Batch of 2 targets.
Target 1
Amino acid sequence: MEREDILLTMQHDVARTLQKPPEKRHWGMLIDTRKCVGCHACTIGCIAEYKLPPGVVYRPVIDRESGQFPAVKRSFLPRPCFHCEHPSCVSVCPVGATKKEADGIVSMDYQKCIGCRSCISNCPYGARTFDSGAYYTEGTPAVQVYEKMGFYEYGKRWNRDSKHGDVVGSARKCHFCSSRIQKGLLPICVSSCIGRATYFGDLNDNQSLICQTMAANQVYRLKEESGNSPQVYYI
């Protein structure tokens, strides 16, 4: 029999999890670096989905080269926000603009953020960046309309059409595409991955594809010594 695409399997998993109350969910991610080909489709998809400006990146892919010629090897490490169980970015925020949600997602409140960047300095994974209000098409005859378009994060439409837009001057980060999740969709980095290298789902659901894949492989987490307990795992 033809196997179901894992994207459909994970989307079914998300739909099942949404039937549970938020406090019973535990969203997490698994990245199989053996499948990642360094195409950066996840990075580009994320930029397009959220109209991310210069300097703001939610899903970078670290390109590493090792060995000596002719035995040289390249490897790729996608690095979203790790939505830690004990996020060091939350405790240092002086205004409570960043918090840990009941479903495990670490979120930002742009209306509270004062742009002090303490969270950026205290994230051991470099997963936060700052929105300075720049546009890619600055210095050209006209700033392009698509850079000023609204976008959805945390279930709300946000404005960035001026230097005083809703999110300008705020720290920004990956949020596991929480707006998409609430509609039963997968994070954009998951659905855009050509190698199906990224798994997403409820870590409390042993029947989910992400949990089954983790159980069948040796997984690891980055910088576990930090004590943050990241909820993004790697193979």
Note: The chain has a mean pLDDT of 93.
Target 2
Amino acid sequence: MTSEPPPARVQATDAPGQPEPTPRLKELYRTFEQHSLIPLWTEIGGLMPPQPAPAAVPHLWRWAELLPAAEESGELVPVGRGGERRALALANPGLAGRPFATATLWAAIQYLNPGENAPVHRHSQHAFRFVVEGEGVWTVVDGDPVAMRRGDFLPQAGWHWHGHHNRTDTPMAWIDGLDIPFQHHIDATFFEFGPDDVQTRATPEHSASERLWAHPGLRPLTRLRPTPATPLLAYRWEYTDRALAEQLALEAEGHAVTLEPGHAAVRYTNPTTGADVMPTLRCEFHRLVPGTRTAVRHEVGSSVFQVFDGRGEVGVGEATWTVERGDLFVVPSWQPLTLAAETGLDLFRFSDAPLFERLHLHRSHQEGHDS
């Protein structure tokens, strides 16, 4: 037996443009409630604000606090069926206790003890791992073992079998990013258990995906079909670092190749299309030289940043923080963002930008320039 949902509440209001709250009008509103109707004239301010008004708020999580919490979880909480992953989700204070960093993005710190398996499963959500420190864990995607090391970006499209195994005698932590909130909101999620054990007998220097796809500018003729998500399972730090260093070197030689003066940036892309690595997630890496301050920028859509190295100051909305290695912060939709590097500042960023661009809803504003 199911219960009827409570009727919608319609409140007479004294806001400008509203009709006088007469007894007859109040009776009409009661009729609306009985028939589950809500008049637009009482709600338009909340449904159609003049600019995005996200429930998510700017927030900072300190790595120096996250990592000890993950380490203690490693001592007290087993990993295996049931919980599946020992992961601590970043819960935005504006989202009423939901385990979401923003309304569309999930971010978490995952922790694996020596010799542990995170068992195999698959899900419709697109995901990635980014390593801010450590090595020794292998993620195995559809049987392809992929090494995880500091600075590596490891994407994994939805509905692929994957598990993790720590082959070393030291624990390891990294961040996970997924589109869980988005798929949850649109009722599109699927999940399936796989084997309990992660098969990691083979630990090659390069995964099969890297051997096929990780050759800059070269695309194998045997795999010409474009794929909506990247088939490359590891974007190695040495290539990211070199690309950023070369941008700044060319800038120093007088070439206008950086995003802003002193601000180099690269985007991880799908080698079959040149588009974003996943249909719902954009992932980038930014490097600011000491003393650089970016222009204030607003964007529709939300982002999560992690400081990979260095120290600097971040302004999001009305909040300002000093940040350093490992710290994570959230930029909600249309909140002003500025970055300033005290030392050199390296930042990993992921966002929901592909969703808004596909829907033709993306908009940005920087120093009087709209796009």
Note: DSSP finds seven helices and 20 strands in the chain.
